[in-house]
Amino acid sequence: MCVLMKCSVLHYTMQCVILSHECISYNEWIYCAIIMLNLLYMLLGLEKDLLKFGIYLLTLLLTACAASATAFSFSAGLSVFALANICVALSFVFQMIFGGFLVNLKSIVVWLSWLQYLSIFRFSLNALFENELQGSVFCDRIVNQTSASCMANKTVIGDVYLDSLNYLEYNIWFNEMALLVNVIITLTCAYICLRCIKKEK
Q: Which of 54, 80, 158, 175 could be disulfide-bonded to 127 (CB atoms 3.0-4.6 Å)?
């Protein structure tokens, strides 16, 4: 709403509004997000590998950028704040449902399964799961007084688990590229919506 008012009364040009809005909104949270993601990575006890940590950080930052760009696109296209707020919330709920976050992708009916490709959650989960689980071996540990050992019949290989969840379709960089393309498309839609605003004289 604020973006529409700034553009419609000719105080600022569209390029200036979009650039300043994106720079300010990203600068507000990007430093805090990096600090919090570092803490979260250590608290979760994920693998201490620099490459895996970098992919984790990149994936979550791209996910946050895609979510922010989606919200900005809705706010640029709709003139009523309440309607824009509801549309953003509904779009994220549908993305969670059809992206495999709330529902297993195998349980979605075939004629609705194409909606999974519109979800930022799907690409984020794919990248995070593949990053952390590929090549990993998980087992139930039997702790004796002398040592902790892994029983062969209770071992789960990360690749097999990913295959059971249907996550081994693409590689990690395809998912990162899909998130980046989502950011570019939604920001382009926001720019087009702002360019189509009727100016008041």
A: 175
